[in-house]
Design goal:
The protein has 291 residues and is an alpha+beta fold. The chain folds into 3 domains: 100 residues, no CATH class; 34 residues, no CATH class; 101 residues. The chain is 42% helix and 16% strand. It has a 3-stranded antiparallel sheet with strand order 1-2-3. A 3-stranded antiparallel sheet has the order 7-6-8. Strand 6 and strand 7 form a beta hairpin. Helix 1 packs antiparallel against helix 2, helix 1 packs across helix 3 and helix 8 crosses helix 9. It is elongated. It starts with 12 loop residues before the first strand and ends in a 24-residue tail after the last helix. The protein binds zinc ion. The site of zinc ion has 6 residues, from helix 9.
């Protein structure tokens, strides 16, 4: 069932999406940035361990929105002032804020961006050429480490488009927001089974471990040797698999990364103990020094 709700305007003004719309006496609509009363004005703190790019993008988002959502100069100035105060509470130095405010007003601001869009075909072609140039350089994402990432980015700039992502922080390590689920309801894992003879099978799944276990058991009960190393081994030897003793080797939701990890853990199984028929993805030898 779909429920519709509606809101009535209050003193000629009504919040709509991200803007507050004011109805003027002559029928015109004017808009300004709207935020809920419960908004905390909490943004990425300036002292937190993030790249300057990320902090700059906080400013760009706020000032660009201010310019684009305000139809009058007064509304924009009011919004800019509010944003500047909020940023200063989040530790942003005044000079840093002022500089980017000027930059994004001229580059990203409403009227300015409209006139740029209307420059016509020539502008578009230039844009296309530039973007194909960018496409030639591979895109690389590295963890952010203050002082190191900036230098690495500078050195690699001619060869790759570098962006940084925040590394693991204390909160990631300590806080578990979700309830602990049983092993079998975990999804996106590399897992390991063992048989009564001590042989090991490593596999991966993007679905839950329980669902993947059903696949393996079904293949065995149907006598399908080609399904996986597990079914082959069990059907050949009659060995039991300790299904409930399954070990989760690691969590990885990204398919590509999970395949690499699976291949890595298969290669770590001691010689003669491996149930896997296929070796999985192989990592080039150059990475082996990282172990
Ligand atoms: Zn066995």
């Amino acid at each position: 069932m779909i429920r519709f709700t509606y809101e009535v305007e209050n003193e000629g003004s009504l919040p709509f999406l991200d803007v507050r719309v004011h109805r003027q006496s002559d029928g015109r609509m004017e808009t300004q940035v709207y935020r809920k009363h419960t908004h905390t004005d909490k943004y990425l703190d300036f002292t937190s361990h993030h790249s300057t790019q990320h902090k700059t993008s906080v400013l760009r988002t706020l000032f660009t929105r201010s310019a684009r959502c305000s139809t009058t100069e007064e509304a924009r100035r009011e919004e800019d002032q509010h944003v500047s105060q909020a940023l200063s509470k989040n530790g942003y130095p005044r000079r840093f804020v002022k500089a980017s405010q000027r930059q994004f007003r001229t580059r990203g601001g409403g009227a300015a961006s409209c006139s740029r869009r209307s420059q016509g075909d020539q502008g578009q072609q230039g844009e296309r050429e530039r973007s194909s140039e960018v496409r030639k350089r591979p895109y690389v994402c590295i963890p952010y480490v203050q002082g190191v990432s900036e230098q690495v980015t500078r050195i690699l700039k001619p060869y790759a488009k570098i962006s940084t992502k925040p590394g693991a922080n204390l909160r990631d390590r300590v806080v578990r927001a979700k309830d602990r689920l049983g092993k079998k309801s975990k999804a996106g894992v590399v897992y390991q089974y063992q048989c009564q003879g001590g042989k090991i099978y490593v596999g991966e799944t993007g679905r839950t471990l329980g669902t993947r276990e059903m696949d393996h058991r079904r293949a065995i009960s149907k006598g399908n040797e080609n399904h996986s190393g597990i079914s082959k081994h069990v059907l050949e030897t009659g060995h039991e698999i300790a299904w409930d003793e399954v070990r989760i080797v690691c969590y990885e939701s990204n398919w590509h990364k999970r395949k690499i990890k699976e291949g890595y853990y298969i290669s770590k199984i001691p010689k003669g103990k491996c149930m896997n028929v296929l070796p999985g993805w192989q990592v080039p030898d150059v990475y082996k020094v990282l172990e």
